[in-house]
Write a structure and sequence with these properties.
458 residues, alpha+beta, 2-enoyl-CoA Hydratase, Chain A, domain 1, elongated
Length: 458
């Protein structure tokens, strides 16, 4: 495998609230590459700036200094100009001052102080992309697509993402009040949250039922693949029965590190392309393929996604879908198909610049489109009808005939309570059970000799 070392940070995230830190990218060339998409960024250079435009910029700069209501120093004007250059390109490019750059480096390790949300802009409004698991935002019930109308009473309309992040972050123990409008709601509500040290474990797991495991990844950080491998091993070791199926939950996963996504997908694939990127420069054109060693082999899988599944999480779900390794279930994902490179500058600041688009193994760009699930299941709220647990069975009737083979022929599956309250999760578990039932039937049919007949009663 050829290893490419790059000083740029390859990352997939939606706002500098949970940005990631530099990693070394490993790139190898697959045996077969899909034809380069015509939608990939063009390589030709744009026309050079005209001298008159430079003069206009200098004139604007000078007039602001001379006539603006408050005195503004040159450094502030230059920083604002750089912010404008970056923010005018796309929603994910930005100029990072020293504090923001330091926050980025902290967040990649999963440790920072705040309320624990990923934010972005939708139709010019500050929007929650996803809350991070087990954080003040998640515990307060904030949801993807919630609009943040105000922060501590200050309207967010016209507020930059950088300023929004600054207002949301703060020392642990301090409070921030958000004015939130839920998707579909007509009236906003206020939510007061206490900031906390966010040291998020990005992976959690448990058994849903005998033989069926659940793996939750909340974001992709430096140690996510390592944590996921350990969680898979624990599921195998803890299962009283052979592991018959795994649900990988990527709902409300806002993304993170490109390398983290590649390494996680590699846990489930033993060959084939995972993702490739295309940009204007040669260094932005990379491909990542799976290695022969896998953590889960051929165990049936279902991947859960929703509108909060973004960027790096879409890479994983797209790779497992295109390589026919898993069935993707849920609702359409967010649709962020671009790669940002973070470039440190000499003064401790940095640029976060969109440098490439990424493509799934089948050559799909999901930019502004999203991953479409194989099985569309919208989240619902389940309620058990009163008295529905009381049902008469044959074994309840007085004087019923006994089964000659004895009682307890099969062990009833005891599902995790979470599978019952989470409609999408419950449907994923049912699908895995169905796949196993079909597989067992096919194996039984193949073992039967041609012309064999069922046992006749005697």
């Amino acid at each position: 495998m050829r290893v490419r070392r790059t000083p740029l940070l390859l990352m997939l995230s939606l706002a500098p609230l949970t940005l990631q830190a530099p990693v070394w990218a490993e790139a190898d060339t697959p045996a077969e590459m899909p034809a380069e998409s015509s939608s990939a960024p063009a390589s030709q250079s744009a026309p050079e700036i005209d001298i008159e435009e430079v003069q206009t910029f200098a004139e604007v700069f000078e007039r602001i200094k001379r006539t603006y209501v408050d005195q503004v120093d040159d450094a502030t004007l230059l920083r604002n100009a750089m912010r404008g250059m970056l923010s005018g390109l796309d929603p994910h490019s930005a100029y990072l001052d020293q504090d923001e750059f330091e926050q980025l480096q902290e967040a990649t390790e999963g440790e920072f102080s705040g309320i624990g949300i990923q934010i972005g802009e939708e139709n010019g409004q500050l929007t929650i992309i996803a809350p991070i698991d087990d954080t003040p935002a998640a515990r307060a019930g904030l949801q993807p697509h919630d609009r943040i109308l105000a922060i501590d009473g200050t309207p967010t309309e016209g507020m930059s993402l950088e300023e929004s992040v600054d207002r949301l972050r703060g020392e642990a123990g301090t409070s921030v009040t958000l004015t939130i409008r839920h998707e579909g709601a007509t009236q906003p509500r206020e939510v007061t949250l206490e900031r906390a040290e966010i040291s998020s474990q990005s992976v959690s797991s448990r058994m849903l039922a005998p033989g069926y495991g659940y793996l939750r990844i909340s974001q992709f950080q430096t140690r996510t693949a390592e944590q996921a491998r350990s969680a898979i091993k624990a599921l195998k070791d803890d299962s009283r029965n052979p592991l018959r199926g795994v649900i990988l939950d990527l709902r409300n996963n806002p993304g993170g590190l490109l390398d983290g996504a590649v390494d996680v997908a590699d846990l489930f694939l033993d060959h084939g392309l995972i993702v490739y990127t295309r940009g204007r420069l040669p260094d932005s054109r990379m491909s990542f393929s799976a290695h022969a060693e896998t953590a889960l082999e051929s165990t049936p899988m279902v991947v859960l996604i929703n509108g909060g599944t973004a960027s790096a999480a879409e890479i994983v779900s797209g790779a497992l879908q295109d390589q026919h390794r898993a069935i993707v279930m849920g609702s359409e994902s967010f649709g962020k198909g671009s790669v940002q490179s973070v470039m440190p500058l000499n003064d401790g600041t940095g640029l976060k610049l969109t440098t490439a688009l990424y493509y799934t193994p089948a050559g799909r760009s999901i930019q502004a489109e999203g991953i479409v699930p194989d099985v569309d299941v919208r989240q619902g709220h389940l309620e058990v009808a009163q008295g529905s647990d009381w049902q008469v069975r044959e074994s309840d009737l007085s004087g019923h005939l006994q089964n000659a083979a004895g009682a307890g022929q099969g062990e009833a599956a005891q599902d995790s309570p979470a599978a019952g309250s989470d409609y999408q999760l419950g449907e994923a578990l049912n699908l895995l059970r169905g796949l196993n039932a079909i597989g067992q039937r096919d194996q039984t049919s193949s073992r039967e000799a041609p012309g064999s007949r069922a046992k006749r009663p005697e």
